[in-house]
Amino acid sequence: MRQKGFYTSVFALSVFPLATVANAREEAEPGIAIEEIVVSARYRTESLSEVPDSITAFTAAEVERYRIERINRVASLTPNLRFSDDQEVGVSTLVIRGVRQNRGTGQPPVSFQVDGVSATNNLLTTQELFDVERIEVLRGPQGALYGRNAIGGAVLVTTRQPTAEPEYRLRVSAAEGRDYVLATSASGPLADDGSLLYRAALRVQDREGQLENAFLDNRLVDFKESTAGRFRLLYSATDRLTVDIRGQYADQEGGSGYFMPASEGVLPLPPPSPPIFFGNPVYQIQSNVIGESFVTFSESSVKIDYDLGWSVLTSITSYTDVESGNDQDLDQTLVDAINILVDDDSQTLAQELRLASMDGTTLRWMGGVYYFSQDRFRSLATTFLGVPVPPAAQDLSLENFAAFGNLSYDLSEHLELTLAFRYDIETPEDRTQGRRETFSELQPKLSLAYDAGDDLLAYLTVGRGFRAGGFNNLAPGSSFEPSFDKESLVSYEAGLKASAYGGRLRGGLALYYIDYTDQQFFLFDQTGTQANINIPKSEILGGELEFAAQPADSLELNVGVGFVDSEIKEYRDVAGVLVPGDAIIGSKVPGAPVWTLNLSLQHTLPLANATDLVSRLDYEHRGKTYWTLDNVDSQRPYDLLNLSLALTRQRWEARFFVDNLLEEDYIEWFFAARFIGLPADIAWPSQPRQFGLEVSLRY
């Protein structure tokens, strides 16, 4: 009954603002309108309400007030986007509209870009987000504009630009778990004529942690040390030519592998030896070692823009070097059964050339070519009952060539047609196995947008997404296949965007259906093998509703609702998967909460001396989440509540905050023993309640 009541509330919440928007008129009382968010999702500056795509965007002010420092915080504020940290500082699982991330040798389901430069390694999605100007989350296939692996969408991060006037910022915070953060930035001119500008930013974090291993003298396991720096030079050589040089370095070290056993451990041994029953307690961190992990990366890029008068030519060249590793207890029990040591190093070179038309014309177009080359070595060495096992090692090279284009044409004053495409040719080569294969796919996209006037936009979109196949990182004794196939999907989407009451109410609704072929899923086993398998056919449908309202000048309300339903339509038994196919067909695609709801309420109270008291409440509901392909294991629905109270003036701000106020205890991610062959099911714990204080200065 409680769940039914929640669905009824969500339905009412969805219908009310849309009905209000549809019937509102400009005779509303005058007041301060909600800030119109400007995005660059189509490589040109547009209002968010004018773009025919499902987009969640955050301005610089929202990044600060929401305290967004990593993509996990973005996900908690975005419908149908889920991000979990699990296993180590560089590893995460991202799910968008039911399209999920492949760990290990697989590729992410979204194009993750910082200042137009794509993150070329799935470990980079965990990087710290600091000195940020804007964040945009685009849902649905975005390959035509945002490159490889944009099968589920794109996350675009724009950092603060170098400024013509000197600017300095400082932010410090302290929170429970001895969690200390310092972030600072400086910007200004390096040449008297303003042709050369710079910006430098630094973020440092030191955290002892809050989660304890009760079986190792309550030692903390979620510790972390992080240092990240960025430097940019913006050179305006002429009125037509600009050169943007960017360098970034980051180093993260922290805990690893503090999963909790979710079942009693049973270690099967080859006959005639009887199985070993561990009898370990469940849902307690009890690894027999304190795991450690690290991710270090350096990235440099050069972006050149040249105004040809009739179009703009852009070149982006980037090079990325990533090193990572972790040492952890793989069985996660207090018995010294299986340990693992992982090393992962990669070097990537990427080059993009594109030509884009000028804004403000009836016909707007963009086209380009892309090249990507990566060398990656990954080794997973396990120890079984103290005996070393030959490692799962993989020496992998990857090349990608692509051509892409986008064309938007105003068929009439109110109707816009957009045609886009991307053609990828991707060739992975596993030098360890001596195998090489080429995957290619044309990814077209068509969109019709109708401006109905009175601040109402309707659109229809059909697009194809693609993610290349590859080779599994196999260890001796593993039953998984040596390779996995490419996946593709066709996404159908219909949406509405509207504003009313003089801009005091803005909203958007999107409904979608995904026809999925050979969807990739990540699994691993006790040998250290990390593998992807393919699900021949699945279907996903759902929707998002987002709206922002300003019922009073001092009060702001933001609401987002997401819904995902799915079904695995076809499945064939796969080597390495111990669960039979008839237990999987008809199940829901795992990893995405069926319902998500996020609500933010902010009140501003003016005080004396130009000071404001800003109080904020952020509420998040995550519905039932299925963890496994057979849907036997799931996470119950739960609710999270964050509060903050801030004193703000023009040049400073002091904020008291508390995350997870209700001390909700839930599972971030889960692996079932019957799929992976470990002694026990394992579950990644949630973060406990945390109080903190943050102070920011600007001058």
CATH architecture: Beta Barrel
CATH superfamily: TonB-dependent receptor, beta-barrel domain
| Overall number of structural domains | 1
The overall pLDDT, averaged over residues, is 89
According to CATH, the fold-level topology is Maltoporin, Chain A
Roughly how many Å apart are the termini? 54 Å
Name the overall outline.
globular
Q: Please report the first level of CATH classification, the CATH class.
A: Mainly Beta
Helix content: under 10%
User: In total, how many beta strands?
Assistant: 45
Largest sheet: 22 strands, antiparallel, barrel
Structural class: mainly beta
Number of helical segments with 4 or more residues = 5
* Strand residue content: over 45%
Radius of gyration: 25 Å
Which stretches of 5+ consecutive residues score pLDDT under 50? 1-30
Characterise this structure:
This protein is mostly beta strands and 699 residues long. The chain has a single domain (2-698), classed as Beta Barrel (Maltoporin, Chain A). Helix content is 6%, strand content 57%. It contains 5 helices and 45 strands. The chain has a 22-stranded antiparallel β-barrel. Strand 11 and strand 12 (179-189) form a beta hairpin. The longest helix is centred in the N-terminal third of the chain and has 22 residues, at 2-23. The model is unreliable at 1-30 (pLDDT under 50).
